[in-house]
Design a protein that fits this description.
443 residues, five-stranded antiparallel β-sheet, six-stranded mixed β-sheet
């Protein structure tokens, strides 16, 4: 019996899950923070115990890893037995992680009582208590923010509306405070209307602006300490509400939003969603719920050639310099495309085969081309499209080429060639699947 138990335990830690949405089903995943360490994604989450729980029963934290956002492997279980919390605690609330000087740190909540810190030599664990006591108390739900200055200055942000979010700079050791925590002032209607319990913040920086989020709303500032001014909602639909505890992350040049939701009203059991995320031309956050409307069950980082079209901004990887441009209302396109720029759509499912490719482009310069390749940026060439010049005020043009038979799942690279500083704007791509008699193409 002991051998069987040990075998099951090993299988629990090595089982891989294939992600769609929710990210990993039926495990009670909550309060997700995704960090990128050594080119690998690590998802740190809370763990709701059972679908029928009507109060929060959270006995541990979980860590998962992925290199493609599709296949996730459970790395470890972080237990309150390994920190100052009670061995039988059910209060393992939200946590976050950071790395410094070759060590990894997990900051955790002991319910609303305190925030502690654990450390490990590997991002996947094993994590042990670094202090044997709280780092700060009271309050909870820590976020770690690392400044983009030369010192990579780390900050701890935690708390709730009732007691105020607080921010404090951390010392180099990552387990002590360099200053007394300061309350964060947030001005605006969204924060005024937030419930007093509102917790689970997230803080990041983009183009010199600090973004502080909670639920579905966020505020911005030009100083990490604030004050912050409300900027509205990050998106609508798909459980983006006051309970949408989540975070944002960059991976291979793409920006993502991950958040949580309760699967049944009145029950404390959650699952998580990931979608693409964008900044509009005014620097506002736009969570791509349109992608979820069309392809919720597929999830990010994977595509089907049978879709009617694939938005260019849904790429899984890009070369440096390519930018997104647009707005929530008008949609987005890729711009600043130059000679040898490229984008990649990994895990493209071609099914039984395709026959042609098309792209919607605009503002094309002379002698611009699109190369379609598989497996790598210099992999087998499937086809080439030479683009005609289009006036900048043109609404766009669909261009296409025939492709050899391709089937199965492939990584697809689009390499852009031309002699101008700006080749064209790319709005969307699509593949044409051969129609068989008596069948139709699924969107």
């Amino acid at each position: 019996m002991i051998r069987i138990y040990l075998l099951l335990l090993v299988l629990t830690f090595t089982t891989e899950a294939f992600s769609d949405n929710p990210v990993i089903k039926n495990i009670g995943m909550s309060d997700p923070h995704i960090r990128v360490f050594n080119d690998t994604l690590y998802l740190f989450s809370g763990h709701d115990s059972h679908p029928d729980d009507k109060i929060w029963v959270m006995k541990d934290w979980r860590v998962f890893s992925s290199t493609d956002l599709v296949q996730w492997k459970q790395e470890t279980i972080i237990s309150p037995r390994d920190n100052y919390m009670n061995n039988d605690s059910k209060d393992c609330w939200a946590g976050d992680a950071a790395s410094r000087n070759g060590m990894y740190y997990f900051y955790f909540s002991d319910q609303k009582r305190s925030v502690g810190v654990m450390s490990s030599i590997h991002p996947g664990g094993h994590y042990v208590d670094a202090l044997g006591k709280p780092l700060v108390k009271p309050m909870h739900d820590p976020t770690l923010f690392v400044e983009d200055d030369s010192d990579k200055t780390p900050y701890l942000v935690y708390g709730d509306k009732e007691g105020s979010y607080h921010i404090a700079r951390l010392n180099e050791d990552m387990i002590s405070l360099a200053e007394i925590p300061k309350p964060i002032v947030i001005n605006g209607e969204e924060w005024e209307n937030a419930p007093m319990w509102m917790d689970k913040n997230y803080l990041f920086k983009h183009n010199g602006t600090y973004y502080l989020s909670w639920g579905r709303d966020y505020a911005t500032a030009k100083n990490v300490y604030g004050p912050y001014n409300c900027a509205g909602a990050v998106g609508e639909g798909h459980h983006l509400n006051e309970f949408a505890h989540g975070s944002f992350f960059w991976f291979k040049g793409q920006f993502y939003h991950v958040w949580t939701y309760y699967i049944r009203p009145g029950y404390k059991y959650r699952e998580c969603i990931i979608s693409y995320c964008h900044f509009d031309d005014q620097g506002r956050i736009v969570t791509d719920t349109d992608f979820l409307d069309r392809h919720f069950d597929t999830g990010v980082g994977q595509y089907k050639a049978s879709w009617q079209y694939i938005e260019a901004e849904w790429y899984s990887e890009k070369s440096e310099g390519i930018q997104k441009k647009g707005s929530r209302k008008k949609g987005f396109e890729l711009t600043n495309i130059q000679d040898d720029s490229w984008i990649c759509f990994r895990n493209m499912d071609f099914g039984d085969g395709i026959e042609s490719f098309s792209a919607k482009v605009s503002n094309v310069s002379v002698n611009a081309q699109i190369e379609i390749r598989i497996n790598s940026i210099d992999g087998p060439l499937l086809g080439v499209i030479s683009l005609p010049s289009i006036e900048s005020n043109n609404d766009g043009l669909n261009v296409s080429c025939h492709l050899p038979e391709v089937s199965g799942v492939k990584d697809v690279f689009f390499k852009f060639k031309g002699s101008s500083d700006h080749l064209f704007n790319l709005n969307s791509i699509s593949f044409q699947v051969p129609k068989k008699e008596g069948t139709h193409t699924l969107l």
